[in-house]
Amino acid sequence: MAVSRFISSLVARVIAGCLVVTLFAASVLVAKRHKGQHEINLADALGKEQLIDMAIIGSGPAGLGAAVYGLRGNCRTVIIQGGMPGGLLTQTTYVENWPGEDSILGPDIIQKMNNQVKKFGAEFIADTVASIDASSWPYKITLDDGAVLHAMTIIMATGSKPKKLGIPGEDEYWGLGVTACATCDAPFFVDKDVCVIGGGDSAAEEAMQLVSHVRSVTVLVRKDRMRAAARMQERLKANPKIKIQYNVEVHEVLGDGSKVTGVRLYDNQRDVAHTMPIDGVFLAIGHDPNSALLNGIADIDDAGYIVMQGRTQRTSCPGIFAAGDVEDDRYKQATKAAGNGAAAAIDAIRFLNELGYTPGSSSVSVAKPSLDDSNDGDESLLSEITSQKDLNLELKRSKTPILIDFYTEECASCKHMMPAVASLMQRFSEKVRIFKVNAAEAQDLVKAYDIRRVPTFMLIAANQRPVTSDKITSKKELVAFIEDYLAH
Ligand code: NDP
Q1: Cβ(443)–Cβ(485) under 8 Å?
Q2: Atom of ligand 1 at shortest distance to CA of 162?
Q3: One-character DSSP codes across 32-81
Q4: Which of 82, 89, 229, 396 is 20 to 30 A off residue 290, Cα-Cα?
Q5: Cα 345 to ligand 1 centroid, rounded to whole Å
Q6: DSSP H or E run through 289
Q7: What b/e sequence results for 331-370 when a residue is b if at least 16 CB atoms lie within 10 Å of its CB, and e otherwise?
Q8: How far is residue 282's CA from residue 24's CA, in Å, rounded to a whole number?
Q9: How many CB atoms lie within 10 A of CB 12?
Q10: CB 419 within 8 A of CB 475
Q11: Are 430 and 400 in contact (CB under 8 A)?
């Protein structure tokens, strides 16, 4: 009896012990998976639909720099352009620190890089990434328009977005006089008085971009000096339409309910506050990294920068790399971003090689379907309306409502949206006629419909009140805007 009790208690202990060990092993496995230690097996990639060797998210210097090396390494390289194709460089004017160029316009750098990677066979997608699913490999990338891609490696080159002040009135008047993009919005402040907030290179750039449109620019600097490059500061000081005020902080944006009328300033030297009447407020106080897509997937520091592993461009998630302003909290230079992009692509190719995969080799056959880039409409088919008279004529002869895409040549988001707008001509051919208007030129339309930024979309029908939106950044949102209008 005692022996059998002893044996059953021993069996119970062994079973309990095994359970503990199993649970411990399972918890280690779960913990490992949570840390992004995915099981990566080349066999899982074979035969996957829309399989890409290297998916680059972002099309600024970091993304395009990565693409050069991805393509040269025989990778099928897809660049998902994002909401601002070409990135922040497309919004700058003269760049005098790009190697090999004395002075070159930011958009020209991007144009040259685009031409180069197109020549090597890069595939561009004019869309934005909605989410990344890194729970299994190859990683699943879902685009805003719902399309899904599978990527063996991902390079995050998503850059950064302008910081906001977080003061009263800033959000209320965003787009109604408060903005962070001089190249996009300068044409809406012709002969107006505007201020630029900040003392860095961006503030100096914004002031120089604005000055040819506006009556006056006041640069508001919170310290007793600017940190912009000395040469940029000299340009500002030499321009009679630009004034610099030091030691001032902006504490509130004031308005009349529909537009900005002034700012509340605090002089931190004399400890006095006063109101400055102003028509436009341009923010240039630095940038925050666009790292949210990797939340919960890879390590991100307290300031939002993606954390790199040692002296590499690897993130903490195997197969995902990063380059440029989204990971660089120190240098933030276009030339460094392009170099980091190159390094990220080299790291990505090494990762693929370590898996036993040689991009472009015939030994491993990877499905290579063409991407259905449904945003790709023919822009040349979009007719231009140049004046109110033109529009009245079209309204008179049109049996359907008219959609107008207000754009400017300099606006990167407009360039991003234009192919999507064109692609809708066929889809809504019976229901809506679509036109574009250059807001920098058609000032009568800009004034008549109170257009304050681009891109702005307006739906209008004869004898009906127009409906406008300046918040549309994707084809999906534009379709919803049109369908909503047609339903009412
Ligand atoms: P920076 O971080 O260089 O400058 C930000 C400016 O905003 C600083 O003057 C800062 O003041 C000020 N600021 C920050 N927060 C506030 C606030 N709450 N209120 C008022 N002022 C504030 O950012 P930039 O965007 O100007 O530049 C980023 C990087 O890009 C830099 O390395 C720059 O050199 C580079 N760049 C290069 C260009 C070119 O070469 N053509 C063009 C544009 C940018 P404070 O000085 O007191 O901290």
Answers
A1: no
A2: 25
A3: HHHTT-----GGGTTT-TTEEEEEEE--SHHHHHHHHHHHHTT--EEEE-
A4: 229
A5: 29
A6: strand 287-289
A7: ebbbbbbbbbbbbbbbbbbebbeebebebeeeebebeeee
A8: 56
A9: 10
A10: no
A11: yes
Report the separation in Å between the CA atom of 203 and the middle of ligand 1, taken as the mean of its atom positions: 7
Can you give the length of the chain in residues? 488
For residue 120, give the H/E element and its range: helix 106-120
% of the chain surpassing 70 pLDDT = 89
Of the candidates 436, 475, 476, 442, the one whose C-alpha atom is nearest the C-alpha of residue 456 is 436
Interval 47-69: pLDDT, tens: 777 899 999 999 999 999 999 99
Residue identifier of the C-alpha nearest atom 41 of ligand 1: 95
Nearest CA to ligand 1 atom 14: 285
Cβ burial, residue 289 (10 Å; 0-12/13-18/19+)? buried
Full-prediction pTM beyond 0.90?
Answer: no
| Separation of alpha carbons 455 and 465, rounded Å | 20
Residue of minimum CA distance from atom 3 in ligand 1: 200
Q: Which residues are catalytic?
A: 181, 184-185
For position 228, what pLDDT does the model report?
96
How many angstroms does the Cα of residue 51 sit away from the middle of ligand 1?
A: 40
Decide: 349 and 168 in contact? Cβ < 8 Å: no
| Rounded distance from Cα 487 to ligand 1 centre (Å) | 46
* Closest atom of ligand 1 relative to the 226 alpha carbon: 9
Nearest CA to ligand 1 atom 36: 201
pLDDT tens-digit map of 442-465 = 999 999 998 888 899 999 998 889
Pocket of ligand 1 (CB under 6 A): 92, 95, 97, 165, 197-203, 205, 222-223, 227, 284-287, 332
- The pick from 222, 246, 267 for probing ligand 1's pocket by mutation, whose C-beta has the most ligand atoms within 8 angstroms, reads 222
Nearest to 279 by CA among 166, 205, 185: 185
Q: Which of 227, 232, 263, 265 to mutate to test the pocket of ligand 1 (most atoms within 8 A of CB)?
A: 227
Q: Please tell me the distance between residue 194's alpha carbon and the centre of ligand 1 in angstroms.
A: 18
The residue whose C-alpha atom lies closest to atom 2 belonging to ligand 1 is: 286
pLDDT of residue 384: 95
What separation in angstroms does the CA of 285 have from each of 202, 247, 334?
A: 8, 15, 18
Residue type for 5, please?
R
